Amino acid sequence: xxxxxxxxxxxxxxxxxxxxxxxxxxxxxxxxxxxxxxxxxxxxxxxxxxxxxxxxxxxxxxxxxxxxxxxxxxxxxxxxxxxxxxxxxxxxxxxxxxxxxxxxxxxxxxxxxxxx
Amino acid sequence: xxxxxxxxxxxxxxxxxxxxxxxxxxxxxxxxxxxxxxxxxxxxxxxxxxxxxxxxxxxxxxxxxxxxxxxxxxxxxxxxxxxxxxxxxxxxxxxxxxxxxxxxxxxxxxxx
Lengths: 116, 112
Fold this sequence. Notes:
The complex is a heterodimer. Chain A is mainly beta. In chain A, about 0% of the residues lie in helices and about 55% in strands. Chain A contains no helices and eleven strands. In chain A, the strands form two sheets. In chain A, strands 2, 4, 5, 6, 9, 10 and 11 form a seven-stranded mixed sheet that branches. A four-stranded antiparallel sheet of chain A has the order 1-3-8-7, with no helix packed on it. In chain A, about 35% of the residues are buried. Chain B starts with a strand and ends with a strand. In chain B, the strands form three sheets. In chain B, strands 2, 5, 6, 9, 10 and 11 form a six-stranded mixed sheet that branches. Chain B has a three-stranded antiparallel sheet with strand order 3-8-7, with no helix packed on it. The chains are: A mainly beta, B mainly beta. The interface of A and B includes residues 42 and 102 of A.
């Protein structure tokens, strides 16, 4: 299995809802990532997990809460989001980098989130 | 700060014409550079990386440290090359994970 799988594909939620995005990979990658992508813009890094521990948080608001329950799964819990949080949320995974070279990222298809 | 710049939002060429998508980086250390491609309704995927020095789908990219550039080239564009192309830089860090930073992207449109 050489894919990163994200569910759901689409999600519409109100500003008072609590929902979760899920990501799964079975490539043995020990680094997993959440990116946010607005229309016609590049992906923006949100979080990086390394060996199931949060290693990078790009000053993301606390209404986004990541979780990495095991080496294959990555979740993003959403609560009290704002309409401007509507975007495509991409999950990615990679092998952990070597001393000199970093492994390329494998991306999922994303979850298109609409906050109403 | 680490930055990746793609000066062109849109590049439109005719089939069979040469293509060059520009990418410049600013980073004081040794950068790792990638080109990612996103075809219509498909996931973002790696096209090539500078350490591999390989040609993928006829595309090549050479790291020019003097000009701090990593331009993507193809001698003869095909219609199926139409897509969004992102140049990205992965910063070395003391840990073995780093940040993959994307340029703004260039849409390549290959006309028949």
